[in-house]
Fold:
Amino acid sequence: MRVLGIESSCDETAVAVYDGAQGLLAHALHSQVALHAPHGGVVPELASRDHVRKLLPLVRDVLNEAGAAPESIDGLAYTAGPGLVGALLVGATFAQSLALAWNRPCVGVHHMEGHLLAPWLEPHAPDFPVLALLVSGGHTLLVAVEGVGDYRLLGESIDDAAGEAFDKVAKLLGLPYPGGPALAALAETGAPDRFHFPRPMLDRPGLDFSFSGLKTAVLYAAREAQAEAPLDDRLRADLARGFEEAAVAVLAEKCRRALAQTGLRRLVVAGGVGANRRLRAALLQMGASLGVEVFYPRPAFCTDNGAMIALAGYHRLQAGERGAGTVRARWPIDSLRPPGQQTG
Ligand code: KG4
Ligand code: ZN
Structure:
């Protein structure tokens, strides 16, 4: 079965073709960074309009690159949520219109299930069961995964998501949107031991996360340091490094606890923050010390992409699922059921 996947949940328009027998045939992405940058963050209405402009040309490009005629597409998948409702509606309407014109089935996919399955786009993919750490701009989730659609939520952020914390700290350090990658780049040049920020939620049991206190600690440290000297590049880099060290330490420690608690021996990491080099290195090191194998998608499949939506859609279409056409701003991942058992 060959699936065209469409992602439009936030500020990236992305399309891909996934073939059950041949794997990923092609993928393409248009980033809206330049569009939103003057506003310092994503403007939902601008995002929706840009998805409208970019979807059709991207589909043409991807079909060309895949060498796939429209008739060879057996089904379509789009991101149905969670995300910005206007942006989601563009992708949903577009996918359903194509499905109608091509007389093919269409299914709505959960964005975080897409992220979760992204490691299976790579040649060296794990067997189930796995522990999944999903770290994106909107969510921080620890999930015990028995198989596709069989998800037990172990922990989540009670306030800011990990990516959101990176973005907010970047902003307070004066870095341009999108903050996460810029903050990570700045942290590379910072001193690891100048600022030691609190590791939130490590002093109590449980697998939930909290990042807003860490963000506030960086804000106060920046203010205090600024009272003595201007916020120069050195200081900003040291603050960025201190923040990154703390965030990574918390994520790694919660993974270690979740592995111990569940007895799972494989860890998959995905979502935009999964592209972070320090996090990848820390989790690999932790995995090696515990004898746990750690899997990541390539960085381009950690951040939003169409390939993960095509793959998740492939599993669900294959099992006969069809979309109800709804989109959802919020959609708990543990309300999903295995392919073929999902209703609504
Ligand atoms: O998964 P994603 O592309 O979109 C959402 O579903 O939210 O994640 C985007 C988030 C943003 O907060 C972005 O700043 C963060 O991932 N991010 C990073 C890095 N690359 C993207 N954070 C830290 N280090 C990175 N290298
Ligand atoms: Zn995402």
Q: What stands out?
A: The mean pLDDT is 97. Residues 233-262 form the longest helix (30 residues). Strands lie at 2-7, 12-19, 23-31, 75-81, 106-110, 130-135, 140-147, 150-156, 266-270, 293-295.
